[in-house]
Amino acid sequence: TTAEMTRRADVLKTTLASVDIAICPSEFLLNTYHNRGFSAQQMQFIRQGLRHIPNWPVQKNPSSKIRVGYIGQLAPHKGVHVLVDAFCRLPDLAEAELTIYGDPGHFAGYAAQLRAAAAERLDIHFSGSFDNAQVSQVYRNLDVLVVPSIWYENSPNTILEAFAHQTPVITSNLGGMAELVAHQKTGLLFTPGSATDLADKLSTVLANPALLAGWRQNIQPPKSLPQEMEELEQVYRTLGEGVAAYVG
């Protein structure tokens, strides 16, 4: 409810006022807090690291088709319906296929709607969820990931995992998603919620599959978990030195 959201915002503001430093994993979140009156001295941007980054170059399994993927919740705010709608606008004989990974149980009604919308397409597959140990295997069979969320994502692990596997990303031009993907360099940005624009972006890739190879070369390995820990430890050391100086 509105009252609950207002109370949550008040509690957050009170809590942040009492901390020495707050870590933001995206510049989007950092700027959001700045715009709401929090001082720059209270905030520090540190992108989260990944536990597993495979050896580069990452080899893809060969395919005669462009393999488009979605990985994540099957939930309305994730915009999976936008992706299904966009893909259904492509010609049936297009040299592409869409595989959607996600647990259909959490939002069963929505998942059923997605399946119904894709019922006449033999090139759209619903493959359920997978164990984290299988993530590299999944990405070896994906050429491009689509992240079509229609809400403000913060710093999506899904995009970082795609880049860890040298997989370009097409994502909504919104929030923390937009800052991760360099348009026409490591993927494409499309108008949030627009199946028409997303279909145009997918058509661009299908008409020019060589773009994907170029974008793969532009992708840089994301931060590892040990690298993130080093950055956090430096923050803790700095805070500790400040406390010691104050006490002394």
The assigned structural class equals alpha/beta
Distance between the termini: 48 Å
Spatial order of strands in the largest sheet: 5-4-3-6-7-8
The succession of helices and strands, N to C, reads: HEHEEHEHEHEHEHEHHH
Query: In terms of per-residue confidence, which ranges show pLDDT below 50 for 5 or more consecutive residues?
Result: none
Question: What is the CATH superfamily classification of the largest domain?
Answer: Glycogen Phosphorylase B
Strand content: 5-15%
CATH-scheme architecture of the largest domain: 3-Layer(aba) Sandwich
The 3D shape can be described as: globular
- Strand tally, please? 8
CATH class of the largest domain: Alpha Beta
- Average residue-wise pLDDT: 92
Give the biggest beta sheet. 6 strands, parallel
- CATH topology heading of the largest domain: Rossmann fold
User: Level of helix content?
Assistant: 40-55%
Q: Helix count, per DSSP?
A: 10
Radius of gyration: 20 Å
Domain count: the total is: 2
Task: Give structural notes.
With 248 residues, this protein is α/β, with parallel strands linked by helices. It folds into two domains: 14-46, no CATH class; 66-218, 3-Layer(aba) Sandwich (Rossmann fold). It is 44% helix and 14% strand. The strands form two sheets. Strands 5-4-3-6-7-8 form a six-stranded parallel beta sheet, with helices on both faces. Strands 1-2 form a two-stranded parallel sheet. Helix 3 crosses helix 8.
